[in-house]
Amino acid sequence: MLEIMDIQKSFDGTQVLAGVDVQVNRGDVVAILGPSGSGKTTLLRCMNFLETADAGTMVFDGERFELGRISKKDIARLRKKTAFVFQNYNLFYNKTAIENVTEGLIVARKVSKARAVETGRRALDKVGLSDRYDYYPSQLSGGQQQRVAIARALAAEPEIIYFDEPTSALDPELTGEVLSVMRQLADEGMTMLIVTHEMGFAGTVSNKAVFMEKGKVVEAGDSKTFFERPRETRTKEFLHTIS
Ligand code: ADP
């Protein structure tokens, strides 16, 4: 469904992505792992055009794009296939949960308000917030706010959802409710690419793992092999220190 080949990105002359490849099939849950500063977030942001990659190729649904010179029109078209869940939720704080979820549908997708509200309610129900439609973010816990952000992603009916460390801003007792929603989406076959430090979650929910360091992929493969019998010494060290 989605393939990234040799993606490269530098900031001020420092190479942060030094030729990374990622393959995603429909229904895959891909965990992107690695130490802090290894380029995981930058990879995700380049894949969703929140940053512009310097070079690399993307093949999405059989269409090929050169990332270093992709047009605004193609970016807009590709963005409709994807959704992004940020570390810090990125909600509008002056809008209620349902308004946060429907805003993009009404403004960017030109869906009627009635239909957007119907879709938005379904999405909020799915993440367990059917009793919080009209709450403002400030009236919700961090875990609930992140679930609103996940509902917003779902309402866009994307082909893939990118998650950038979705639980790292949460207190440990609120992490579980967000991971459990993500686990449910995985069980339902949602395609997801997840940057995470939650190794237990990655080990049980993902079917593919990509381990990055210094802007490169050190090891990638099916999660079972990756977690149980990693090939590279560096992967073994990483799994050992983090667990
Ligand atoms: P990770 O997600 O693995 O922690 P990041 O992708 O956030 O890694 O960052 C990789 C490197 O790129 C870091 O050294 C970081 O400081 C740098 N970096 C990320 N974004 C920017 C930016 N907008 N400007 C300059 N440097 C950046």
| Average residue-wise pLDDT | 95
Helix tally equals 9
**Computed structural class:** alpha/beta
Strand content: 25-35%
Shape: globular
Strand order across the biggest sheet? 6-7-8-3-9-10
User: Largest sheet at a glance?
Assistant: 6 strands, mixed
Helix content: 25-40%
Order of helices and strands: EEEHEEHEHHHEHEHEEHH
Number of strands: 10
Bound molecules: adenosine-5'-diphosphate
CA radius of gyration: 18 Å
Q: Would you identify the regions where 5 or more consecutive residues have pLDDT less than 50? A: none
Note the gap between the termini.
32 Å
Molecular structure report:
Helix 5 runs parallel beside helix 6. The model has no long low-confidence stretch (mean pLDDT about 95). The longest helix has 16 residues, at about 170-185. A hairpin with a 2-residue loop joins strand 1 (about 1-10) and strand 2 (about 15-25). This protein has helices spanning about 40-45, 70-80, 95-105, 115-125, 140-155, 170-185, 200-205, 225-230, 235-240, and strands at about 1-10, 15-25, 30-35, 55-60, 65, 80-85, 160-165, 190-195, 210-215, 215-220. With about 240 residues, the chain is α/β, with parallel strands linked by helices. It binds adenosine-5'-diphosphate. Adenosine-5'-diphosphate binds near residues 41 and 42. Adenosine-5'-diphosphate (ADP) binds near residues 34 and 38. Keywords: ATP-binding, Cell membrane, Membrane, Nucleotide-binding, Transport. It holds the Pfam family ABC_tran. It comes from Lientehia hominis. One of its GO terms (molecular function) is ABC-type amino acid transporter activity.
